[in-house]
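Can anyone check this?
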Amino acid sequence: MKLLNLSKEKKKVTVELSSDELVLLCNCMYYTDRQDNLNNQFGHELYADMMAIRDLCQYGHIDGFCFGQMQKYKKTKECR
């Protein structure tokens, strides 16, 4: 991970992740969700966004399975 920009005033940070780091982060979020620790709407929406970014970075597109998972995580607080 490479820190590109950090702004205390704007409360924003810009980082650069490699494809491998992105996959690892998504895998961690998946595991956390399976352990019932990703139990808020923000966490689910962030995970859905990360899935899209991961697939675009790795494959250049979002496949049907990932798109369905993203919709599920965006719509509900409980994904089971």
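Reply from J.R.: I decoded it. The beta strands are 2-7, 12-16.
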